[in-house]
Design brief:
16% strand; 8-stranded mixed beta sheet; 300 residues
Length: 300
């Protein structure tokens, strides 16, 4: 079977082609839209497995971290290929795993931001003029959505504390990164994932970012008891480092909201090392290092 998801720059056209090819190649893969971005792009979800325990993987929250989306697409393809061939990944038989769990993958939570980070100002459409001003015309480090809101600062988890922290850093209005919006869950991308989670009430959630080879697992006194044990297991197969929340990473994120909303474990996994945006040449090494972690997340 040919490889569908190749090592390629993930423009939205390429992304949609991968979504369509994966859907056609794997009839058991259920593809749907869980919402639309500010600029009307589909926020696709992939559903695999028929078990009662539901696990959510999310990538592409920050525009310049689009490599996380490519990693999750490759993982979806590998899972479905092994499911057909009765194969294994990291020692686990995929057919057996998918009988016991349901995996929901959102490869690109922020498709507008990714397109802006890759293609520049032309991808901003009606926000082109304002966005060019707030990034001085350099879109290469763009993390926010199309209207300058950092999705991972927009969740209703101690959001007002995070907003106060942003103000101390001089972040008071739309910006390329770290502006959490004017109120929590103000953005359609945030609403897409919160609606989905409130509907299915997953058992765990993993959100993938870059970079640092780190794993975040806690959210203050709300941290589930088994989260540390799970996080240590993830470290054991990836050699990543456990990190405590501090500063802008201490609240307002998807992981924090999920833990507070459901009381279930959630993890932020920072893949790769270097400077964002990580180069495409790092893709194979990063995937090789985290594939066991991705599978273990379905077992824990």
């Amino acid at each position: 079977m040919k490889t569908i998801v190749k090592k390629a720059v993930l423009t939205y056209n390429v992304y949609e082609n991968y979504v369509n090819e994966l859907s056609l190649s794997f009839p058991q893969l259920k593809v749907a839209s869980c919402g639309k971005s500010v600029l009307g792009k589909e926020i696709y979800s992939f559903v695999m497995g028929e078990g009662s325990r539901q696990i959510v993987y999310v990538g592409g929250t920050h525009g310049m971290e689009w490599l996380t989306s490519l990693l999750l697409l490759r993982f979806c393809e590998n899972i479905m290929t092994r499911n057909i061939t009765d194969g294994t990944i990291a020692g686990y038989k995929i057919q057996e795993l998918l009988k016991n769990i349901q995996l929901i993958v959102i490869p690109e939570l922020n498709p507008d931001g990714i397109e802006i980070a890759i293609r520049g100002g032309g991808a901003c459409e009606e926000y082109k003029v304002e966005n060019a001003k707030i990034c001085d015309g350099d879109f290469s480090n763009w993390s926010a959505n199309a209207r300058g809101v950092d999705i991972n600062h927009n969740f209703n988890a101690d959001w007002y504390t995070l907003r106060d922290y942003e103000k101390t850093k001089g972040i008071n209005s739309p910006a390329p990164r770290r502006f959490g919006g004017f109120y929590p869950e103000s953005e359609p991308e945030t609403g897409a994932i919160t609606r989905l989670c409130r509907y299915i009430r997953p058992d765990s959630l993993y959100t993938f970012h870059s970079q640092g080879e780190e794993i975040y697992y806690e959210y203050g006194n709300n941290t589930p008891e088994k989260a540390l044990t799970m996080a240590r297991a993830l470290v054991g197969v990836s050699d990543y480092t456990l990190v405590k929340n501090e500063g802008h990473a201490a609240s307002g994120g998807l992981k924090d909201w999920f833990i507070e909303e459901f009381g279930n474990p959630a993890f932020t996994v920072e893949v790769g090392k270097g400077k964002n945006p990580l180069p495409l040449s790092d893709f194979d090494d990063i995937y090789f290092k985290i594939e066991s972690l991705l599978v273990l997340g379905l077992v824990l």
